[in-house]
């Protein structure tokens, strides 16, 4: 069973660059219009048999307009839009705190996020729900009725923006194991 461990260098927009660790992403576009959006998928889908999958993204620098989206999507989703804007794509956006579920229309969810924040995403395949965390604190259920072969994804349209993903290669800010034991 292969788990997501890094970003997929062959499955990203040309507006993004990835460092040699395949964990840090930099936005290289102008960030002036929707055509400048760039997204990237992880190297493997999340196996549903793992029951619970959690990852975190550290916002190293929010960039010029804070246009950042963190979420998950299926393999067929285009990578020229933000997470959540297309069918089979879901995301939580930092510039407006909204959730996007297979549509360009967002719904209020949580706080804005920016430079220095860590946003976590937990996919629970036991009850088919998703919740996000901000700096180690849960923000509540974001999505229900999970299905499909899902990849962690990140999108940006923020000039100069930079993030780093943690797929479990270091300690999480959110106490996942404590949450699991109390769940």
Automatic annotation (TrEMBL):
InterPro entries listed in its UniProt record: B30.2/SPRY, B30.2/SPRY_sf, ConA-like_dom_sf, SPRY_dom, Ubq-SigPath_Reg
Molecular function as annotated in GO: carbohydrate binding
Domain named B30.2/SPRY: residues: 1-172
SMART domains: SPRY
Domain of life: Eukaryota
Record key words, sorted: Lectin
Pfam families: SPRY
PANTHER family, sorted: RAN BINDING PROTEIN 9-RELATED
Protein name (Swiss-Prot/TrEMBL): Concanavalin A-like lectin/glucanase domain-containing protein
Organism: Gigaspora rosea
Upper lineage: Eukaryota, Fungi, Fungi incertae sedis, Mucoromycota, Glomeromycotina
């Amino acid at each position: 069973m292969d788990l997501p461990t890094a970003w997929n260098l062959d499955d990203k927009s040309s507006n993004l660059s990835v460092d040699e660790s395949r964990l840090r992403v930099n936005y290289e576009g102008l960030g002036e219009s929707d055509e400048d959006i760039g997204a990237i998928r992880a190297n493997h889908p999340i196996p549903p048999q793992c029951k619970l999958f959690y990852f975190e993204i550290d916002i190293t620098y929010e960039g010029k307009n804070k246009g950042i989206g963190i979420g998950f999507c299926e393999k067929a989703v285009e990578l020229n839009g933000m997470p959540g804007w297309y069918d089979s794509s879901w995301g939580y956006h930092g510039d407006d705190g909204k959730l996007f579920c297979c549509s360009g229309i967002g719904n209020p969810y949580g706080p804005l996020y920016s430079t220095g924040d860590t946003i976590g995403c937990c996919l629970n395949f036991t009850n088919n729900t998703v919740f996000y965390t901000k700096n180690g604190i849960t923000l509540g259920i974001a999505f229900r009725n999970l299905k499909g072969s899902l990849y962690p994804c990140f999108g940006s349209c923020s000039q100069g923006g930079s993030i780093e993903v943690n797929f479990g290669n270091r300690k999480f800010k959110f106490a996942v194991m404590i949450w699991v034991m109390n769940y």
